[in-house]
Design goal:
One of its GO terms (molecular function) is translation elongation factor activity. Keywords: Cytoplasm, Elongation factor, Protein biosynthesis. Its main location: cytoplasm. Helices cover 47% and strands 20% of the residues. With 310 residues, it is of the alpha+beta class. The chain has two domains: 54 residues, Helicase, Ruva Protein, domain 3, CATH 1.10.8; 167 residues, Tetrahydropterin Synthase, Chain A, CATH 3.30.479.20. The strands form three sheets. A three-stranded antiparallel sheet has the order 1-2-5. A three-stranded antiparallel sheet has the order 6-7-8, with helices on one face. Helix 1 packs across helix 2, helix 1 crosses helix 3 and helix 9 crosses helix 10. The radius of gyration is 22 Å and the shape is flat.
């Protein structure tokens, strides 16, 4: 496959690697972007996570939490432009979608779109979406939602950057008061800022760990400084590097952003001790507008058309 300047630019934006390194990676992998990312990681030239700089889809995330904190939902609704994403009519519609998601009993987006619209049962959610598209004059897409129902605690929400990022945090708690809620809000802000993938290491899939071990091992073997080191020494080095990486992706092991002397786990423990109560992070949901969508406008239109049954 011919390697174009555009492909090199895209890979550089995704990984932060140098231009020539990106060109070589694409050449070595026959233009396969995912394999090129892996190639750069093995050479120690790229981060584990792709950068999100090329994500084109606009829109906002919104949350809806019941007064008692027992039921909560988060949604992402996309638009074509940032201008529409800031429109009050659009934002009101997204808030109504979040309320619908908090009340729904379905779990997949197709069933959600097919159910009666809560503000007008003569319409479906899909019908209301079509109406809003006609009013606003721009393609829109209800991309995803998630609902949390908790019994032994509460859910706290946080919206960052005007809806660019939305967070739900479920806390297990024996006592719910302002201090516990403030703790949960701080945790939600941590999730927004640091983008963890899991609550703790028990949630990390075994295949992920094995894959990262392989990547780290290739990196170590390619490092001239390790040329004369025995394999068992290199293996010990890998354990340290892997543990460091896991601490970055597991919420409770991350350094707490508001107090660098604490981990998130230690922060929650300190609040629980202050309350004289049980307080534990059970799970979190993090939506970032457009994450994972690397698409041109015509692709966005095709996704909307598919959802609308056109």
């Amino acid at each position: 496959m011919a390697i174009t300047a555009g492909m090199v630019k895209d890979l550089r934006e995704m990984t932060g690697a140098g231009m020539m390194d990106c060109k070589k990676a694409l050449a070595e992998t026959d233009g396969d972007m995912d394999k090129a990312v892996e190639f750069l990681r093995e050479k120690g030239l790229a981060a584990a996570e792709k950068k999100a700089g090329r994500i084109a889809a606009e829109g906002i995330c919104a949350t809806n939490v019941s007064a008692d904190g027992k039921v909560a939902a988060i949604v992402e609704v996309n638009s074509e432009t940032d201008f529409v994403a800031k429109n009050d009519t659009f934002r009101t519609f997204v808030d109504n979608v979040a309320a619908q998601a908090a009340a729904t009993t379905v779990t997949d987006i197709d069933a959600f779109l097919a159910e009666p619209w809560s503000l007008d049962a003569s319409k479906t959610v899909k019908d209301e979406l079509a109406s809003q598209i006609a009013v606003i004059g721009e393609n829109m897409n209800i991309r995803r939602f998630e609902k949390i129902v908790t019994e032994n605690g509460f859910v706290e929400s946080y919206i960052h950057s005007g809806g660019r990022i939305g967070i739900l945090v479920e806390m297990e708690a024996s006592e719910v008061n302002a201090t516990a809620k403030e703790c949960a809000k701080n945790i939600a802000m941590q999730v927004a800022a640091m983008n963890p993938k899991y609550v703790d290491q028990s949630e990390v899939p075994a295949e992920y760990i094995e894959h990262e071990k392989e990547i780290l091992k290739v990196q170590a073997m390619n490092d001239p400084a390790n040329a004369n080191k025995p394999e068992n020494i290199i293996d010990k080095m890998l354990v340290g590097r892997l543990n460091k990486q896991l601490k970055e992706i597991c919420l409770v092991d991350q350094v707490y952003v508001k107090d660098g002397d604490l981990t998130v786990a230690k922060y929650v423990e300190s609040v629980a001790k202050e309350l004289g109560a049980t307080l534990k992070i059970k799970r979190f949901v993090r939506f970032e507008t457009g994450e994972g969508i690397e698409k041109k406008s015509e692709d966005f239109a095709a996704e909307v058309a598919k959802q609308m049954g056109m």
